[in-house]
Each structure stands twice: as structure tokens, then as C-alpha cells.
Design brief:
Blueprint lengths: L15 H24 L3 H13 L1 E2 L1 H8 L3 H13 L3 E5 L7 E5 L1 H23 L3 H19 L2
Antiparallel strand pairs: 1-3, 2-3
Helix pairs in contact: 1-5, 2-4, 3-4
């Protein structure tokens, strides 16, 4: 009699990378309601707006790296924010293939309106946890980021 070996099964619901992905997606979707209602922005548009609001001037490549977005998503977001006149492109003096992106006054105003809403969202999200849980999640996320950045 031949004995069959059961293949190992991965329970996604208990697999940490999957759980982190689902959690991040859920939080991102919940927050996206705020900027979608306020300004009709998509996630890539919000990430582009917030990256430029934070840093002032960036290239599309830098935006992609900072926000972990594919270059096509960055390109579409930049085009839409430019169409709204929330962003301007300035060719690099030394390399015409590179454009420096900055927010216009209107783009900066939208960003500044969203900052307190984003911070309030974060406070409300963390308020769902005890002080001990908040400290643990901050430490745990920082430890994972550190461990993955050095690998």
C-alpha cells in the first residue's frame, strides 16, 4: 500500500504578509473616501499630491519610489493633477528627459486642506486601540521596516 503525503496548505487568513496587505488595503480604502469625497482624487492622485506637498519638488521617478507606485500610475496621476492645474512640470536644465514637478497654489491649497483631515483620520484609527496596542503596532511596524530595509 502506497501512503500519500498530504501537500502542505497555506492558510491565507493566518499568513502575515497577506494579513498586512489586507489591513493596509482596508485602511487605504477607508481613508480614500475622505479625499475622494473632498476632491474626487484617486489613490495615486492623492499619493502624488501628498508627496509633492511634503517634499515641494520631485521627479516622477522620485514620486514612484516614495509612494511605491508603478510609473504608469504616477504618469496618469501627474497628468490628471496637471489637467486640474494643481501641478506644473519644469524640464531639467541638464537632462530634458527629466521633469521637476511642483504643486501650484491651487494644488498646495488642496494639500493643506487635506493635511488636518489625514491627521484626524490617523488619530481616529489609532484611538480604536489601547495605548499599549498603539505602542506595540508602532514598534512592530518600525521593526519590520528596519528588518526589510537592511535585507
Amino acid at each position: 500500500m502506497v501512503r500519500q503525503i498530504k501537500p502542505e496548505i497555506l492558510e491565507l487568513e493566518n499568513f502575515l504578509p497577506y494579513r498586512l496587505y489586507r489591513l493596509a488595503d482596508t485602511v487605504s480604502r477607508e481613508f480614500s473616501r475622505i479625499y475622494k469625497e473632498r476632491h474626487g482624487l484617486t489613490r495615486p492622485e492623492w499619493r502624488t499630491l501628498s508627496g509633492l506637498g511634503q517634499r515641494g519638488m520631485m521627479t516622477a521617478t522620485e514620486l514612484g519610489e516614495q509612494s511605491a507606485m508603478h510609473k504608469t500610475k504616477v504618469s496618469r496621476a501627474v497628468a490628471e493633477l496637471e489637467r486640474r492645474r494643481w501641478l506644473t512640470r519644469t524640464p531639467d536644465e541638464n537632462d530634458r528627459r527629466v521633469e521637476h514637478l511642483t504643486l501650484t497654489k491651487a494644488g498646495l491649497a488642496a494639500y493643506r486642506e487635506m493635511v488636518p483631515l489625514a491627521k484626524a483620520f490617523e488619530r481616529e484609527l489609532l484611538a480604536r486601540l489601547s495605548a499599549e496596542e498603539r505602542a506595540a503596532i508602532v514598534r512592530g511596524v518600525a521593526a519590520l521596516e528596519e528588518a526589510l530595509s537592511s535585507s
